[in-house]
Amino acid sequence: MRNFLFTSPWRRQPWVFAWLCLLPALTLLGAFTYLPVINSIFSSFFSSTGSGSTLYTGFDNVHYLADDPVFIKALTNNAWYALFTVPTSVILALTMALWVNQKLKGRSFLRLGFFLPTLLPMVAAANVWLFFYEPNIGLLNRFLSVFGINGYNWLGDPDTSLGALMMLTIWKEAGFFMIFYLAALQSLPSDLIEAARLESPSRWYRFRKVVMPLLAPTTLFVLINALINAFKLVDHLFILTKGGPNNASTLLLYYIYETAFSYLDQPYAATQTLFLLAVLALVSALQFALSRNKVHYQ
């Protein structure tokens, strides 16, 4: 087989061999990415009749998005969720990476401690934090009772349920992003760092003028992944709140799941999915555009 591929006429037409090498990946990408997107676009033009059949309705599903209060609530929750968890996780990850990159005793155990939450499945992590948030015997309320503060229903209050989910996400995600920053810090050119140390004794100056510009590609990568995770992580909702109370903690992907599998309205769920894809694509494009002059690759 190898001799057949590398002999004429394959050698005179290398593009054919290149496409053959790409064929397995393109097949999987098309089957599990592009075909579902095309199917979602096609399904969004129909509506479920409730008897298992569908009816062509054109753009009615799109118009219904603007009038759906639960969808608006889920979108608003997800926007606040992303605005808080993404920058907080990135800043915390960078701080931890800078800390464990120094010469410290027990540095390996410290790195392991920061990365350990990442190893837990989200469902397992949610069960751990469920013990923290439990109103009667939860660890947080036991800590507050030491100061004479009564227990609080963190997951049952509309004012705190979404924030409780945010804290779990930050705890789970920061250690994962720390690994990327740590790898980037260890790959920085030592001559540039030494030159910056000779130029200025201020650590803050070296960090702002030398380290951060060199970490810009990693920061862009982490920001995009953190943003995508903020819209796709919903496992903890099934354990902690199930979107309640009164949709106070409902996120967009969780509402899409409920629409498709609880309400059995897959055409409307397809419309919501396309809206979510469009939002993620637009925000990612804006991130690339705004960082074009600040991100430089070697």
TrEMBL record:
UniProt-listed PANTHER family: ABC TRANSPORTER PERMEASE PROTEIN, INNER MEMBRANE ABC TRANSPORTER PERMEASE PROTEIN YCJO
InterPro entries according to UniProt: ABC_transporter_permease, MetI-like, MetI-like_sf
Sorted UniProt keywords: Cell membrane, Membrane, Transmembrane, Transmembrane helix, Transport
Superkingdom to which the source organism belongs: Bacteria
Lineage, top ranks: Bacteria, Pseudomonadati, Pseudomonadota, Gammaproteobacteria, Alteromonadales
Pfam families: BPD_transp_1 (PF00528)
Localization: Cell membrane
Family: Belongs to the binding-protein-dependent transport system permease family.
Protein name: Sugar ABC transporter permease
Organism: Motilimonas cestriensis
Membrane topology summary: Multi-pass membrane protein
Span of domain ABC transmembrane type-1: 75-287
Spans through the membrane: 79-100, 112-132, 162-184, 210-231, 269-290
